[in-house]
Structure formats: C-alpha cells, structure tokens
Amino acid sequence: MKRAFDLVLALLLLPFALIGVFLFSVLILFDDGANPLFLQQRVGQDGKLFTLFKLRTMRVGSPNVPSHVASSSQFTRLGRFLRSAKIDELPQIWNVVTGDMSFVGPRPCLPSQHELIACRARLGLSGLRPGITGPAQVKGIDMRDPARLAEADAVYLGRWSLARDIGYIAATAIGSGSGDAVKGS
After folding, report:
1. Residue 179: inside a domain, yes or no?
2. Percent of the chain whose predicted confidence (pLDDT) is above 70
C-alpha cells in the first residue's frame, strides 16, 4: 500500500513539480550561471546507492559534505531561500517515481556517513526506503547526532499508516523542523 500511495501522489504532483523545477532552474541559471540540478550518490534501501536529485543551492566548487557541515557562506542567495522553503527537494519527486525514495522515511545519507549507516542498521532502518521527509526531519534533528537521528526515525518502523504519512508530509509542508540544518558562516 505504501508504494501505491507514493506512486499515486508522485504522479499527481509531478506536473506541478516539473513546472517548479523549470522555473527555479531558470532563476538558478540567472543567479550564478551554473547547472541548476544537483545530483549526489546517497544510501538507499538495503544499503544500495542511488542518485538523489535536488535543485542546486550551493556555490559551484563547494565541498561534497553533509548540510550540517557546510558553511552558510557556501550557499547562494537563492539557495538559502530554496532550502528554507524546501523547494530544493522538488526533483526528489522523480526519485519517488523511480522507486529509489518514498515521501516518508529516513532521510538518505551520504555513503561517507558510516556512523549513521551503522546506527540505522542496528535499529533495522536500513530495510526502509529513504524519504523526502521523515520523523527526525520533522523534529528538527539533523545528521550531527547519528544515534539520536536513527532513534527518532526508528518510530517509523512497524506497520505502515496512511494517516501517519500524511501527517509527516503535512508537518513538513507547513515548516515543522529544520531538517538539514546549516551552521553559520
């Protein structure tokens, strides 16, 4: 049922997401003239790597590090807005369509985040499809504290609930949590 819900919702949102991605891609091109899409390898279900799609929010040449490690000076002016409004996540709807992600689940981490991967494996989270949003993100827990983040996401284990997924999606849409927090410059 969860995959069917994800697929139906993704296909309903895809036309609007494509329009948004196109419009913001044009703005990103005008802002700094570089490729507006950001592609990055992330850890997916059962530890398999996949390519995550986002709108680019950081300056060209910024290091490939988790958001909580990045300095706010590495973000473009438009990128700060895209992050705060969560618009940079729109291309991930395609990741949902392809089955690499779900709307709700643990946020996918970088392959270099070994401690988080190990914490998630110990709690049985590695078998879940990663999500655009999830329990830890709604609570504002970023990847700085891998054990705490994995424990927060562990509440998602168990029987799937449509109402619970809708609750996480709604909480994210209205701005709950800080998700991938960025340290000051």
Report:
1. no
2. 90
Let me know if residue 183 belongs to a domain: no
Question: In whole angstroms, how large is the CA radius of gyration of the chain?
Answer: 16
- Record the tokens describing residue 95, joined without a space: 């990741």
Q: What is the C-alpha to C-alpha distance for residues 155 and 171, in angstroms, rounded to an integer?
A: 16
Domain span holding position 108: 2-173
Residue type, 76: T
149-161 tens-digit pLDDT: 999 999 999 888 9
- Could you please report the per-residue DSSP string of 111-150? TT-HHHHHHHHHHTGGGSPPEEE-HHHHTT--TTSHHHHH
In a domain, 181, yes or no: no
In a domain, 178, yes or no: no
The number of residues making up the chain comes to 185
d(CA 9, CA 103): 9
pLDDT at 185 over 50: no
Total domain count for the chain?
1
